[in-house]
Amino acid sequence: MNDVLFPGPPSTPSEPDTERDLVCGAFRDSDPDGKRAAAVIRATYDQLYDGQHTGRFRWDQLFKTEKTHFGTLLEINLRREFDDVIDDPIDSHALDYSVRGIDVDCKFSQSFGGWMIPPECFGHLLLVAWADDVRGTWSLGVVRAIDINRRESVNRDGKTQLSQRGRQQIAWLQFEADLPPNVLLGLDKDTLAKILAPKSGQARVTEMLRQATERRIGRNTIATLAQQDDYMARLRDNGNGARTTLRREGYLIPGGDYEVHRRVARQLGVPVPEPGEVLSVRVVPAAVDEPWTVELDGRRWRRVKDGESPVEPAPRLPDVRKPKKGSAATALPGSDE
Questions:
Q1: Which residues contact 180 (CB under 8 A, 6 or more apart)?
Q2: 3-class secondary structure, 74
Q3: Pairwise CA distance, residues 212 & 192, whole Å
Q4: Dihedral Cα 43, 45, 48, 49, nearest 10 deg
Q5: Alpha carbon of residue 101 to chain centroid
Q6: pTM above 0.70, yes or no
Q7: CA distance linking residue 286 with residue 323, whole number of Å
Q8: pLDDT tens digit string along 76-88?
Q9: Which segments of the chain are extended strands (E)?
């Protein structure tokens, strides 16, 4: 995407607008921390990249027509996620949504402030979105496309953009908030080359977890590297998966789908993976009085320090598999699954 110079921290809109405030309130009540909207934007990027089948993970790898399609996909994906907030528009031939009985149109731009406004949106509320996968940020707000908030000039289709004043009247739900990570974009060239070098998907996934430690890695990154239908199986501790291979080298790989694994990450003092994510961390045996330790396999462990290398395999993570019907579950330290 284009580099963007932002106008600074957002200010409170000076123009009173009861309907705008009602729409903002509906989204804030449903998604107070913005995590639902952030997940939708992350999923929309990953949907376009289609890394499982193409190996792509960057915006500049997309075709122009695919980039143009992002806004349509985001509109659809927001509608599906926020079905507790968004209804079909009252005037089905005009705008995209209805929120608390108020029609709203959804607009996405690849550049901040570049939302194109057609004549049928003039005077109506807009849900405006912007995101940058390289920077890992996104913004979402609500503004009314009244005359004084629009530029005077229009293109051949009668479309225009928000004026500087109009951009200042956006009521932001989230401004430059963090996107769920696209880990591959944050790696240096040498590290990325090591990860992508192996020919097999299993080897690429394993190398990713070896090279990019203590980073939250989403399932779409795993899919992009594995390029297989059963991509999450590349993580298993089953003799062939990444957990088995890397455990021998002192790595733990907790997953965010299980609270007992998230607890391991918290106790070690590393980022806690969210559902659908994993994280790798190298560990060594710890003394009883050391901070940031976790008990596994009857011993205490801590993350390695700079320049330190494990001298023995990492312990097994708590078993999260459900016991077979009729068998007794084995109690594991710290497990609540």
A1: 38, 39, 42, 216, 218, 274, 277
A2: helix
A3: 9
A4: -110
A5: 30
A6: yes
A7: 31
A8: 999 999 999 999 9
A9: 86-87, 97-99, 102-109, 125-132, 137-144, 171-178, 217-218, 251-252, 277-278, 281-285, 294-296, 299-303
